[in-house]
Amino acid sequence: MSSCEFLSANAAADALAAGDLTSEQLVEALLARIERLDGQLDAFIAVYAEEARAAARAADLARRAGHAIGRFHGVPIALKDIIDLEGRVTTGGSKVWENRVSPVTATLARRLVAAGVIVLGKTRTVEFAMGAWGTNRYMGTPWNPWDLAVHRGPGGSSSGSGVAVAARLAPWAIGTDTGGSVRIPSSWNGLTGLKVTLGRVSCHGVLPLAHTLDTPGPMCRTVEDAADLYGLIRGPDPLDPVTLNGPNGGDPRLGIDRGVAGMRLARMPAHEREGVDADMLAAYDESLALLAELGATVVDVELPRGFVTMGDLVGKIIAAEGHSWVGEYVDDDSLPVDDDIRPRIRPGGNMSAGEYIRVQRERAAVKREFDAALAGVDALLTPGVRTAAPVVADIDQSTTAAIFTRPFNLIDYCALVVPNGRTSGGLPLSLQIVCRGFEEGTALRIGRAYQHATEWHTGVPPGLDD
To answer: Buried b vs exposed e over 338-364: b needs ≥16 C-beta within 10 Å?
Structure first.
């Protein structure tokens, strides 16, 4: 397993800097792996092979001339297919947009290219980014690589990004998270995924679902990669005024290796364990015990609202705001819109302005309540999801997998998921580290300490390790 396509983004950057690897070699290896495996995995909707090769050759020439423009110059990435690249098709996972040509390039994509990162292609998504299971009737459902025999849910809506990184088709990727769409596919694919605070990363050029909830973020193999990718794409953007409101923050790597000694970490209330698989709970309890061994104090807290109730509020906001963006397509039964998606967005068309304002007012109240309940606590820990990846044929589309993720979009918190075990059948399990808004550095610090003491993040799906 020494091939360069198995390198994390930071390991690849080290090899490029040392002269042990060229960007052209790395890109060719990844393109060959995509060609070999993506027929089944279906992670990519578009691969920019010739453009990536040209960019790799240019990166190698620049590096040899002493003109590398950053640590990650020449390192490839995959982008979720709701991120605009001017002149290229961005479908948003919808058949009705299969020929939609992007009018702009997203700010986050511009920042990546400015740092020398090479875009390999676009990854599949749930239609309109509206769904936690990762399925898409018309545009294709990626195959979770941790079970090559049975088609399991890849997680959504950033389904292709999760599969691409887990299967070593790309060292890292960008997803978006409105109710869990970075964290759920990261959880089910054994990845490290960072849900950032609203306003940390510009949404300019990212197709909107719910503009008061949407947050683009990193999907990676390690906490270090997540911190560095976050560092590349974050920051104020005049084209997205929300990014101008919060603190700018420092280097995401600053303090990441300080460990957890002296930190206070809250476990979730006992009643939230109901409905969670035994394997997931066992891994969760073992993770808490390990962090305690590393010097953290694990405490109990009383939370003001239940996660399901909070998630229902998120569902109402997504429906209302989502309908304002894509209601004309969802409400037109003559169009090829996924029938699993219509019921999630259509109710938003019937929500009155008064009801929407009341929901947003309640949202603000819940945030104040949580801020008070978690005073003196550095992070709240939960599982990333209730179960490991389900069989696609068994999914009940009227339900959601976002029980543990939606609540923290509601209150504008940030959260990191890291792999923390396997089921008896070998499927990934996950731990979620939730911190207050704009405290990504704290979540990354806790996640780094956990990964420094474990090896779950190094696992490769069986059958894809050569």
So the answer is: bebbbebbeebeebeeeebeebeeebe
Sign of the C-alpha dihedral computed for residues 176, 254, 11 and 57 taken in this order: positive
Q: Which two tokens stand for residue 253?
A: 């790597």
At 34, the amino acid letter reads I
Instruction: Provide the 3-class DSSP secondary structure of residue 445.
Output: helix
User: In 142-211, at which residue ranges do the beta strands (DSSP E only) sit?
Assistant: 173-177, 192-195
Instruction: Give the C-alpha separation, 162 to 157, whole Å.
Output: 9
CB 115 within 8 A of CB 149: no
452, 228 Cβ separation under 8 angstroms: no
DSSP E strands, 24-129: 44-47, 76-80, 118-123
Partnered with residue 240 across adjacent β-strands are 237
Which tens digit of pLDDT belongs to each residue from 152-189? 999 999 999 999 999 999 999 999 999 999 999 999 99
Cβ proximity of 218 and 174 under 8 Å = yes
Cα distance between residue 447 and residue 192, in whole Å: 9
Main-chain dihedrals φ then ψ at residue 161, nearest 5 degrees: -65, -45
The second-level CATH assignment, the architecture, of 4-304+371-458 is Alpha-Beta Complex (3.90)
The continuous run of DSSP H or E covering 321 comes out as helix 307-330
Reported pTM: 0.98
Cβ atoms of 378 and 264 within 8 Å: the answer is yes
60 sits in which H/E element: helix 49-64
pLDDT tens for 404-455 read 999 999 999 999 999 999 999 999 999 999 999 999 999 999 999 999 999 9
4-27: burial string, b at 16+ Cβ within 10 Å, e else? bbbbbbbbbbebbeeeebbbbbbb
Q: Percentage of the chain surpassing pLDDT 90? A: 98
User: Contact, 8 vs 171, CB < 8 A?
Assistant: yes
Rounded distance between C-alpha atoms, residue 223 and residue 159, angstroms: 20
Report the DSSP beta bridge partners of residue 119: 77
Number of helices and strands in the chain (H, E): 13, 11
pLDDT above 50 for 1:
no
- Burial string for 103-137 (b: 16+ CB within 10 Å, else e) reads eebbbbbbbbbebbbbbbbbbbbbbbbbbbbbbbe
**39 to 36, 44, 224, 300: CA distances (angstroms):** 7, 9, 30, 47
Give the start-to-end residue ranges of the domains of the chain: 4-304+371-458
Catalytic residues: 80, 157, 181
CA distance 139 to 159: 12
Question: What phi and psi, each to the nearest 5 degrees, are found at residue 57?
Answer: -60, -40
Going by C-beta distance under 8 Å and a sequence separation of 6 or more, which residues neighbour residue 455?
Answer: none
CA 170/CA 163 separation, integer angstroms: 9
